[in-house]
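Hi support team,

I've been running sequence recovery on a batch of backbones for a student project. Most finish fine, but this one hangs at about 90% for roughly twenty minutes before it completes. I'm not sure whether the input is malformed or the queue is just slow. I've pasted the C-alpha cells below so you can try to reproduce it. Let me know if you need the job ID as well.

Thanks,
M.K.
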C-alpha cells in the first residue's frame, strides 16, 4: 500500500470510527446527560459548556492500527469498527486517569476534566469510559464477528488493560526515585505504550480471521512499533521543532520528565553528575541551555535514535514473519515508517 492509498484508507475509515465512538458515548437519559457530556468534552466534541465544538483530538493511531490489522489479513474493517472504537475509548480513559495521577491541568490545549469538574467526577467519567470500552468490543457480534473471535479479542484486550496499569504503576513510582535505569524505563513503556499498540493490531487481525499464531506475530510487530513510537516522542520532547510540535524547546527537560534521553544522560559517567545538578535547580529557561549542552555531550540523542531504530528493525522482522512476502507492501509497514520519521 502506497502513502496515497494509506491516506485514502484513513480518509474512508476515520469518519466511520468517529461515528462509532459518538454512538457509544452518547447520552442515554437526561438525568445522567452530564456524565456522557464530560466524556464528549474530553474527546474534543463539546466545549466546557457542553456546546458542540471541534477541539484538537488525538492521532487515533491505535484504532487505525486495529482496522489495518483486520484489512492486512483479508478481513473487512467494518467488522473491526466496534473493537477499534473500544480501543480508542480505552486509550482516552487512561489519559483521564493519567491527568489526575500526574496533576496535569491541561491536555491538547484545554483544561483537563479534573481541572474543570473535580477529581471525583473525572475519576468516575474515566471509569465509565473503561466500561464502555469493553461494551464496544462486545458489539462485534452485530457486525457478524463470530463469538470465538470476539472472545479471543477480549482476552487480548483484558491483558492489555492489565499491562496499562502495570506501566502506570512503574511510571508513578519513578516520580519518587532518582535512580531509575534505562532498562526500567523500557519496561515501563512496554506497559504504558507498546502493549496497547501491539494489542490493537492483534485484535484487528483476529477479527479479520487471522490464525492466533499470525495475530501473535502482528502483536509483536505492534509492540516494537510502540516502543519506537514512544522513544521518538522522547526525542521530540527535547529536540523537536517548537513550531511543529507545538511545545517549547526542551520541554521534557523543563518538566523534569524521566524520558529515555534524560535517564541516559543522568547515568553517563562523565556528564551525569553535572546534568543532575542542573536538573536539581529551578525549572527555568536560563538553565535550559546548560542542560541541553550536557545532554548532547552525553550522547543521549544518538543512543535514543539508535534504540528507536533498533525497535523499528525488530518490528520489520516481526512483520515479515507474520505476513511473509506481503510485508514489503503492507500499510502497516508504511505507517511504521511514518511514525519513526515523524516530527510531531
Amino acid at each position: 500500500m502506497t502513502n496515497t492509498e494509506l491516506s485514502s484508507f484513513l480518509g474512508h475509515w476515520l469518519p466511520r470510527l468517529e461515528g462509532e465512538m459518538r454512538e457509544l458515548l452518547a447520552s442515554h437519559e437526561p438525568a445522567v446527560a452530564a456524565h456522557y457530556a464530560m466524556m464528549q468534552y474530553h474527546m474534543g466534541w463539546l466545549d466546557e459548556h457542553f456546546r458542540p465544538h471541534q477541539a484538537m483530538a488525538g492521532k487515533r493511531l491505535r484504532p487505525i492500527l486495529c482496522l489495518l490489522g483486520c484489512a492486512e489479513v483479508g478481513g473487512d474493517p467494518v467488522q473491526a469498527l466496534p473493537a477499534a472504537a473500544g480501543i480508542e475509548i480505552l486509550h482516552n480513559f487512561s489519559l483521564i486517569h493519567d491527568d489526575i495521577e500526574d496533576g496535569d491541568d491541561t491536555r491538547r490545549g484545554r483544561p483537563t476534566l479534573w481541572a474543570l469538574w473535580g477529581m471525583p467526577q473525572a475519576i468516575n467519567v474515566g471509569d465509565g469510559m473503561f466500561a464502555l470500552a469493553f461494551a464496544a468490543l462486545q458489539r462485534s457480534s452485530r457486525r457478524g464477528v463470530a463469538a470465538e473471535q470476539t472472545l479471543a479479542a477480549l482476552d487480548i484486550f483484558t491483558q492489555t488493560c492489565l499491562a496499562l496499569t502495570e506501566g502506570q504503576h512503574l511510571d508513578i513510582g519513578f516520580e519518587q526515585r532518582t535512580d531509575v535505569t534505562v532498562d526500567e524505563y523500557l519496561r515501563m513503556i512496554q506497559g504504558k505504550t507498546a502493549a496497547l499498540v501491539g494489542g490493537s493490531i492483534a485484535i484487528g487481525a483476529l477479527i479479520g480471521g487471522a490464525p492466533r499464531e499470525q495475530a501473535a506475530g502482528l502483536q509483536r510487530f505492534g509492540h516494537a512499533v510502540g516502543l519506537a513510537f514512544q522513544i521518538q516522542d522522547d526525542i521530540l520532547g527535547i529536540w523537536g521543532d517548537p513550531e511543529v510540535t507545538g511545545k517549547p524547546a526542551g520541554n521534557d527537560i523543563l518538566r523534569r520528565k524521566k524520558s529515555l534521553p534524560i535517564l541516559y544522560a543522568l547515568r553517563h559517567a562523565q556528564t551525569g553528575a553535572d546534568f543532575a545538578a542542573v536538573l536539581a535547580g529551578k525549572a527555568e529557561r536560563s538553565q535550559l541551555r546548560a542542560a541541553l549542552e550536557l545532554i548532547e555531550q552525553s550522547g543521549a540523542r544518538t543512543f535514543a535514535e539508535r534504540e528507536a531504530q533498533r525497535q523499528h528493525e525488530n518490528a520489520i522482522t516481526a512483520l515479515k514473519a507474520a505476513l511473509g512476502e506481503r510485508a514489503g507492501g503492507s500499510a502497516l509497514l508504511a505507517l511504521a515508517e511514518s511514525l519513526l520519521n515523524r516530527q510531531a
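--
Follow-up from support: It reproduced on our side and the slowdown came from queue contention, not your input. The chain has a mean pLDDT of 95. No action needed from you.
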